[in-house]
Amino acid sequence: MIRALLLRKGISRALSPPSSNNFSSFSSSSSVSDLLSSARARHVVDGDRHLLCSLWSVIQHRGFKVQGSDVRVGNIIERKERIFQVTKVEHSHEGRGKATIKVELRDVESGNKVTQRLATDESVDRVFVQEKAYIFMCRDRDAKVLLMDPDTFEQLEVPEELFGKAAMYLQDDMKVMVQLFNDTPLSASVPKRVTCVVKEAQPPMKGIAATPKEKKALLDNGMTIKVPPHVVVGDVVVINTEDDSYIERAKG
Questions:
Q1: Which residues touch 207 (CB under 8 Å, ≥6 apart)?
Q2: How far apart are CA 138 and CA 171, in angstroms?
Q3: Is 3 helix (H, G, I), strand (E, B) or coil?
Q4: How far is CA 98 from the centre of its chain?
Q5: How far is CA 105 from CA 86, 162, 189, in A?
Q6: pLDDT tens figures, 63-103
Q7: β-bridge mates for residue 66, sequence order
């Protein structure tokens, strides 16, 4: 049974199957279109609640294989029946030997970190994770961030470090994305484009033949970035949160 297999892997979601043999007639060779057509045709009735059974609900945690060279920071992989999150990746090539990938891994269950080397052509089991939207509410003095599920209004508390440096961009009522594995938060991210207010900036220089192309500006979140000369204190600017770069003045 697919559900039993997922439970043994510890990565199934708490979802009751439509019936005990809904998917038992499908073999591993069944076509995707057959699975999708059958899944769309079934509904689960839970009191007054109707849940559409999608193909994704069947395969979301099966995972897939990638090569060592394709492993990236943030990926969730399985090694020796343990689940790890990749926290650091370094490529190296020693002498005439094969190129290798040095990866730092965090055990999802214990939190312990280990370092391993992977061959670039080595097969690695990557695991799917669930990505869910939350609304940022506030943060406390213990470096905890309080989020709210916009659908159920349930609250979720996560460590601020899950956002990394992007935690500086958190704003009231901001929609953020959280990656979860087996209901455990692994990482979180803010939107790629965020608006901030310029709190300090050098005023435009007049009478200078060679005007600088950029100048430094202090934002309301405490971050200092480079902006064009025409940006002044009080301007609302759009920032790329991936590289902390200025995009444009906010419109309106």
A1: none
A2: 8
A3: helix
A4: 31
A5: 5, 15, 19
A6: 678 888 888 887 888 888 888 888 888 887 666 667 888 88
A7: 124
